Amino acid sequence: MTHEPVPVTRPVDFGTAKLLPDVDRPRAWLLTVDGAPQSYVDLDRPEHLEFEYARRIAVVLESVFDAPFDAVHLGGGGMALPRRLGRVRPGSRQRVVEADRELARLVAELLPLDDQGVTVDVADAREWVAAAPEASADAVVVDVFGGSRVPAHLTSVEFVTRVREVLRPDGLYVANLADSAPFAFLGHHLGTVRAVFGPAADLCLLAEPGVLRGRRFGNVVVAAAAGRPLPLDAITRACAADAFPARVVAGDDLDRLTGAPVYDACAEPSPEPPEGAFTVG
Question: Is pTM beyond 0.85 here?
């Protein structure tokens, strides 16, 4: 007799985690913490990414790297992106940094990884980066939210500078942010990344047109590369072909959004999202 999967609720270090089964897919789960979606994982199809912002991060990584690479993921959740990269870029070495020990334990128990190339470290992202070897990663993905906000200590020039040192000279920085018009938080982060990576670095952002037009609050993915050009044409084509197309903003249009860099002394978390923006029942 086959039993339907049932939701799992468990206290974790930073709230209450829930694993909600997808009624249409027998081994697919939505992970939330305090109602905020963290990851969607299909154990039968690890390459599947349900969240649009995660697909945009994958587009950038897979457009830049056509062979196995060394990636650091600051922020773990259900580890959807490492699962995908393990399938589409087999042989990649990936390190996931997750601050919530109990959440990492829950994921290891109920959503186990089948990729031996993924190592999980339980640590604060800023502290881990401070201790990481220089020039040890091809890509660093920053996808850390405290509740529904990006923590202030992961937005500053000091933090991004240390990430840049962990990257190899031709390394890639990718960050998942959240903001809405007039994009003060996003603008300051663009200025921060530009200050660290330099005026010659390639920089772009990916977001839904509705977010960029100021119609709603949403995710914005920022990518920067100092030692190589970003393949903007390939990224743009892939984003346009998605079920929920995204715009790629670069060049003069990006410059118009860019604000002043932010340092530790004045760094702030991303804005509080409107009620219901990032929650599920």
Answer: yes
Site of tokens 């922020």: 75
**Measured distance CA(122)–CA(232) in Å, rounded:** 34
Model confidence pLDDT, tens digit, residues 261-273: 999 999 999 999 9
Sheet containing strand 70-74, edge to edge, reads 118-122, 93-98, 70-74, 137-142, 167-179, 218-225, 202-207, 247-250
Q: Which amino acid is at 218?
A: G
CA pair distance 250, 204, nearest whole angstrom: 5
Q: What are 183's two structure tokens? A: 């994009």
Tell me, what's the pLDDT at 281? 45
In 10 A of CB 179, how many CB atoms? 22
CA distance 178 to 272: 9
For residue range 103-146, list pLDDT tens digits in order: 999 999 999 998 789 999 999 999 999 999 999 999 999 999 98
SS3 232: helix
Q: Which fold has domain 46-266?
A: Rossmann fold (3.40.50)
Whole-angstrom CA distances from 2 to 6, 122, 128, 274 are 12, 35, 43, 41
Distance CA 116, CA 98 (A): 17
Instruction: Give tens-digit pLDDT for 40-93.
Output: 999 999 999 999 999 999 999 999 999 999 999 999 999 999 999 999 999 999
Q: What percent of the chain has pLDDT over 70?
A: 97
Token pair of 227 as six digits: 């030692």
Please count the other Cβ atoms lying within 10 Å of the Cβ belonging to residue 244.
13
Handedness of CA 92, 221, 263, 150 (dihedral sign): negative
Is 19 strand, coil or helix?
strand
d(CA 74, CA 154): 10
